[in-house]
Every structure is written in structure tokens, then in C-alpha cells.
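Two quick folds needed for the group meeting slides. Do the first one here.
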Amino acid sequence: MTAGGEVGKIQLSLRDEIGRAVLAHADFNGSRGADDAEGLLKLLDSCNVALQECATLQRNAVHQARRAEVSWAAIGERMGITRQAAQQRFAPEEEAAPTGNLRRIEGATAFNEMQLLAEQGKEGFHLVGFGALYLLVKPSRHMWEHRRETALIPGTRGRLEAAGWTYVGGWFPFQYFKRIKE
């Protein structure tokens, strides 16, 4: 099978899984007929949630790809749009410089961010935000540990929060956590 054929097969499988998930979430099986207004509205609600979640996953995937230094041209090509269109659609708005005692660390990528966070944690700084190619840390009186986990493993967030980690946020496919170092 060609690579394109394999991609097409994966896309069909994903479409089927998404369709089943949306129908199950709406508890919709179509057995009540096309005039089941309440069931159709519930299905519409589930479709809207799925669209919003997919858009969030896509944006996070693009931002994570940029943090891993993937070019806008490669991102646009994968999405079937131009480099310029991808950049206009997904480039984060420039944020104002941090105010007060926050520190913005430029040049953070998926490859070096955990090392940067380990160094910042030893200096008493903890992660409070992040974006494409930067980390935002805040000083405290404590040393900090930071952890990055894949968001694809169910229950990871709950397990880590039960172990004393604080959820900071996520960039698909990662979730970021912090805690005071003991």
C-alpha cells in the first residue's frame, strides 16, 4: 500500500471514531426518527463540543510543532494551505512584556524546555505560562520541580494532582505540572 493510501485509511478510521464518539456523547442512535427535535439538538450540542475540542487540539499541535522548530511551510503543506495562511491563522498574537516580577524565557522548544525549567526551579522560579518559543516563570521563596507528561495517557492529570503536582496547562500532546521541591 502506498503512503497516501495508508494516510487515507487512518483518516477514515479517525473519522469513524470521532463520529461514534459524538453520537455516543449525544446518546443519539437515530431510532426515534428525523422528527426527534430534542435528540437532534443534543446531537448538535455534541458536534459543537467536538468542533471546539478539535480546533483546540489543532492549534495546540501547531504551536507545539513551532516550539519544535517545524517551519510554517511544512505546517501549511501538511494542512493543505500556504505558509502565509498557516502563519496568519495560527501565529500567536505578540504578548506584552511580562509585568511585575515575571520572567519571560525566550527560545524554549520541546527539546530544551525541561532543562530550562529545571534550572529555573533551582533558582526559585516556577512556571506560570508558556507559548510558542517562550516560558513565563514567577519567583518564589521555594525551589520547584517541573514535569511534562503526555496528554494521551488517560488519568495522568488526576494521578499527578493526587501526588501533589499542580497542573499549569497543556500544549498538545503535553501537559505541564509543577510542585515545590521537598
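Then this one, please, same format:
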Amino acid sequence: MPHFTLSMTQSGPVLDLVVGASAARLEALTEAGMPLPAPQNVRALVDTGASCTCIDPMVFTALGLQPTGSMPMLTPSTGPIPIDADTYDVGIIIPNGQQQGLIFPNIAVSASELFSAQGIHALVGRDILQRCVLAYNGTAGFFTLAY
């Protein structure tokens, strides 16, 4: 089973993501002879409390993507009343050095203002983690993600 182990940062379990247009969008752009948007490298916090993966809207702007829908979202700051969050169809790769990375060619994610001041532009939610084994070793200061 491919896996990687990373050290905890001051922000917690943080990893790199490559976010691009979804495979379906890339195929449509290619067939239309249009230029393909450059994938964006972002830092992401692994968040077992997030039901879905969330990405900062600036990433969608850089990719030239438009929302494909919306979903109700509850956060600690919204209390019991959900807010509507735009959703976007993207492709995500979690790189793993020389091994095959974890690839999601078509996944719907939510837009959410995140921790830009800390350099975090995404939350990896349970929609991705459900395909993984996450080992969090706080006392040793590392986490492992296997897939």
C-alpha cells in the first residue's frame, strides 16, 4: 500500500496538493482547442472534522473555474444555521515523491476562505480521507497517510 509520512508543522498535519481542472473539463477544453489552465500547488491541512474538501476561492480564480453548484455548510462560526458554499469540480493529486500519488481526477469541492495568513489554502476532508488510512502520532510529531 503506497504511503508517506510527514512531520507535523506548527499548523498540524499539512501536506501539498496539486489542484487543477477536472479531467472532464480538461477533455472538453482539449476538444475545443482551448488552452489548459496550469495546475495550482497548494498547502492543505488534513481535517477529519471537514466532511468535504475545501479550497480557497483564489485557487478557482487562478484556474478560471466557475461554480458548478452549491451546498449547505456548517462551521463552528456559522452555528446551527448553514451557509451556502459554492462547489467546483476539480482534479486533485496528492504527490508522493517517487511513488504513485493519490489521484482524484474528478471531485467536487467547496469554496471556503481559509488560513491564508498561515499559508494554508485547502482542507483535506473526509471525502478524500475515506480512501485512506490516516495515522496521527502527535507525541512523535508525524502523521502517515496510506492509500
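Slide caption for protein two: The longest strand covers residues 83-96.
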